[in-house]
Design a protein that fits this description.
The strands form 5 sheets. Strands 2-1-10-9-11-12-13-14-15 form a 9-stranded mixed sheet, sandwiched between helices. The chain has a 6-stranded mixed sheet with strand order 6-5-3-4-7-8, with helices on both faces. Strands 16-17-18-19 form a 4-stranded antiparallel sheet. The chain contains 15 helices and 24 strands. The mean pLDDT is about 95. It has about 525 residues and is of the alpha/beta class. Adenosine monophosphate binds next to strand 13, strand 18 and strand 19.
């Protein structure tokens, strides 16, 4: 027999209804690419989302249909998150930095019927239009001469609309992950999984939003649902400040001007912000919380933020996990720790938020579950209600029989639940039968004063199988020598981990989400031979 509580289907439209009702006047500020600024609020976002849902129906869209957005962070993009879901559709947030063949593949694979884009991405539309036969309508978030503008399009509606009702397991969003091999894979987020993920994101151990929070998410809205921030933010009724350009000067100005308390982004954007502040001779903005995720946060970054009085939350996740898996923040013994101990703790990836479970298994035998002893590293697996079960249109599940998804990451679990990520399964370097973490070497190397960026890959070695080679981009004007880097690393990693060679390069290839692309680095140095391998 069931209990007797009320039916309340978990649909994301509840989120925007709540925000409009309980925090209707809380502002949503946008700094647009042309430098102009607009202000709306949660009531305005809901009103426009209702009109957008109506406008989509007028175009003939039906529940389950997909709408692509190719856009930066701004209030109209936020409207689309709720407008598309509100008519039962599925928003496909497309990363504009993807390569042409990936753009072609994902829009066709998702069968997107409408594409809504920022004017700055018009060249992408012009290039791809003929290769996207399914797309029936193009709408531009900005106004322009030969485009249907978003404001005009929704402006023709009166907003007298009731959200489409349906199952809470219906999809509301799809994100593609480019992965390292094969075609990109689509992850369909459900209304329910999105709600649960956002609610979990609100807990003090995660984003810890309150009604007083003012968040400027630098993480793009097209990157893994912007880490769920728009939904969690709406639940808490926070003020959002969006920047449609990723210029550190603009971000800095907006943070100061709008009283931003929280921000979130990948390490590269924080680094760019530091460089801007250094060049201008100014302090970091007076944030309360800085969330860093998407790639490992280097020690020097954590130290600098913490010394400025900013609480650092180092989060781990992936497109397949909606994306939050773990978040690191102050632990129960925080006050007893020295500054160095705190930094070391935050350098790890934090603890799982309620709702997901982690385990590590032996890299050579996935049936062997490893101890949480703070030293044994293995393949990281995860399960929970916001973790992918099957990729879009795939014929088989992406999980083991007992529901574990293999992340492709390698990590160590500590007894207090902390995850310490050591590498990607494909990037870990096997030397003489032992594993070397390429990420740890990179993180240590970027602490060297002359190193701007570093990437480490394994190169074939006749005796050891593989040995690490470190590729380094020096800081502009810095004197940098291989020997000084090796000497710098020598008290930070085991002796046998020290790279066999350090090579200086002008740049390191990145993926569309700004991460180091080891695949491209390996391709670029396919003919590289270690001296011993000649
Ligand atoms: P994506 O699906 O593009 O968000 O990429 C997910 C991958 O990014 C993960 O599987 C990790 O390899 C990496 N990643 C995410 N967060 C972190 C982190 N805090 N530290 C190290 N790697 C991370």
């Amino acid at each position: 027999m069931l209990g007797a509580m009320q039916d309340w289907t978990m649909r994301v439209t509840h989120v925007v209804d709540h925000a409009a009702r309980e925090a209707g006047s809380r502002e949503i500020v946008t700094h647009w690419a042309d430098g102009s600024e607009t202000r709306t609020n949660w009531a305005g976002i809901r009103r426009d989302a209702l009109k957008m849902a109506q406008a989509l129906e007028r175009l003939g869209l039906k529940p389950g249909d997909k709408v692509a957005s190719i856009a930066m962070n701004h209030s109209r993009h936020l409207v689309s998150w709720f407008g598309v879901a509100g008519m039962g559709g599925v928003l496909h947030t497309v990363n504009p930095r993807l390569f042409e063949d990936q753009l072609e593949y994902i829009v066709n694979h998702a069968e997107d019927r409408v594409v809504i884009y920022d004017a700055m991405f018009q060249p992408i539309i012009d290039l791809m239009k003929d290769r996207w036969p399914n797309v029936e309508h193009y709408i531009c978030f900005d106004s322009g001469e030969h485009v249907t503008s978003f404001e005009d399009w929704i402006g023709a509606e009166d907003g007298d609309y009731r959200w489409v009702e349906g199952d809470e397991r219906d999809p509301c969003m799809i994100c593609y992950t480019s992965g390292t091999t094969g075609n990109p894979k689509g992850v369909q987020y459900e209304h329910r999984s999105t709600m649960l993920h956002a609610m979990a994101g609100l807990q003090p151990a995660a984003f810890a939003f309150s009604a007083a929070s003012v968040m400027l998410p630098v993480v793009p809205m097209f990157h893994a649902a912007s880490w769920g921030l728009p939904y969690a933010g709406a639940m808490a009724g926070i003020k959002f400040v969006f920047c449609a350009v990723n210029d550190p000067a603009v971000l800095h100005e907006m943070m100061i001007k709008e009283g931003v308390t929280d921000s979130a982004g990948v390490p590269t954007v924080w680094l760019a912000h530091f460089q801007y502040c250094d060049a201008e001779g100014i302090d970091l903005p007076p944030l309360k919380v800085a969330t860093i995720g998407g790639s490992a946060a280097p020690k020097s970054m954590i130290e600098r933020l913490m010394k400025s009085g900013i609480r650092v939350q180092h989060a781990w996740g992936m497109t397949e996990t909606s994306p939050i898996g773990t978040v690191g923040g102050p632990t129960h013994d925080w006050e007893q720790m020295s500054f160095e101990e705190k930094v070391a703790k935050i350098q790890m990836q934090g603890r799982p938020i309620f709702g997901v479970e982690l385990r590590t298994v032996d890299l050579d035998d996935f049936t062997k579950v490893l101890p949480r002893d703070g030293k044994t590293s293995g393949a990281l697996q995860i399960r929970g209600p916001w973790v992918v079960k099957r990729y879009f249109k795939a014929e088989e599940d992406a999980v083991t029989e007992d529901g574990w998804f293999d992340t492709g990451d390698v990590g160590i679990l500590h007894s207090d639940g902390t995850l310490q990520l050591t590498d990607r399964t494909k990037d870990v370097i096997k030397s003489g039968g032992e594993w070397i973490s390429s990420v740890e070497l990179e993180n240590a190397a970027v602490g060297h004063p002359a190193v701007a960026e570093a990437a480490c890959i394994g190169m074939a070695h006749p005796k050891w199988d593989e040995r690490p080679v470190l590729f380094v981009v020096p800081k502009p004007g810095a004197e940098c020598e291989a020997q000084s880097i090796i000497a710098f690393l020598s008290d930070k990693v085991a002796k046998w981990w020290l790279p066999d060679a350090v090579e200086f390069v002008d740049d390191i290839p990145h993926t569309a989400t700004g991460k180091i692309s080891k695949k491209d680095l390996r391709a670029r140095f396919a003919d590289y031979r270690l001296p011993e391998a000649e």
